[in-house]
């Protein structure tokens, strides 16, 4: 993927040199509480190499000022024209608008340049993640009640949201700006 630049971020492919920064994200129990148990360094390295780099399953959000990877952005073509997006950001950067900035730029590029028809996301966090999905213009497509377990073994709902190209164009005009 080509680099995408925003006011504060560069979104780019992961490299092996990103292992420490990715571990700072994935190794934090609080950050991972709505995903899966926190990773150790070995699991982070394996995931970085196999999923992020070899399969091109995710991209890095790099803060321009610090040159540090502060965000992991899941971005996969689920089937032709349909992309899945997801995000996990370093806890030290929460509530500063980085996730919105990065996801918005990725969504805009997907519709403008990659020929996306639809982008979807899923989450068990019905507050912060759902709030971001709504802010990005996504529409609720369903809730699977008690669908999966959280990291504590509790049954939780799984929220599905999606954004169609037509809706995106209506929200942002023909150019997507």
Uncertain parts: none
Number of helices: 5
Element order: H for helix, E for strand: EEHHEEEHEHEEH
Overall 3D form? globular
Strand content: 25-35%
Overall average pLDDT? 94
Write the layout of secondary structure elements.
Layout: E1 4-5, E2 9-13, H1 19-26, H2 41-54, E3 58-63, E4 69-79, E5 82-89, H3 98-113, E6 118-123, H4 128-135, E7 139-149, E8 155-164, H5 165-172
Parallel strand pairs: 5-6
Antiparallel strand pairs: 1-2, 2-3, 3-4, 4-5, 6-8, 7-8
Helix pairs in contact: 1-2
Textual characterization of the structure:
This protein is α+β, with helices and mostly antiparallel strands and 177 residues long. 31% of the residues lie in helices and 33% in strands. It is built from five helices and eight strands. It has an eight-stranded mixed beta sheet with strand order 1-2-3-4-5-6-8-7, sandwiched between helices. Strand 4 and strand 5 form a beta hairpin. Helix 1 crosses helix 2. The model has no long low-confidence stretch (mean pLDDT 94).
Key descriptive features of the protein:
177 residues, 5 helices, globular, alpha+beta, eight-stranded mixed beta sheet
In short:
The chain is α+β, with helices and mostly antiparallel strands. It has five helices and eight strands; from the N terminus they run ββααβββαβαββα.
């Amino acid at each position: 993927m080509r680099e995408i630049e925003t006011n504060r971020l560069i979104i780019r492919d992961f490299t092996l040199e990103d292992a420490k920064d990715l571990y700072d994200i994935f190794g934090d129990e609080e950050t991972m509480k709505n995903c899966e148990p926190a990773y150790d360094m070995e699991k982070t390295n394996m995931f970085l190499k196999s999923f992020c780099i070899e399969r091109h399953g995710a991209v890095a959000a790099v803060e321009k000022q610090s040159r540090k990877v502060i965000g992991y952005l899941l971005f996969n073509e689920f089937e032709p024209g349909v992309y899945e997006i997801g995000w996990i950001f370093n806890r030290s950067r929460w509530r500063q608008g980085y996730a919105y900035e990065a996801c918005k730029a990725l969504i805009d590029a997907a519709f403008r340049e990659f020929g996306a028809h639809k982008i979807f996301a899923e989450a068990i966090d019905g507050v912060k993640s759902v709030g971001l999905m709504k802010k990005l213009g996504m529409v609720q497509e369903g809730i699977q009640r008690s669908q999966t377990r959280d990291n504590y073994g509790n049954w939780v709902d799984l929220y599905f949201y999606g954004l169609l190209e037509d809706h995106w164009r209506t929200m942002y005009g023909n150019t997507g700006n």
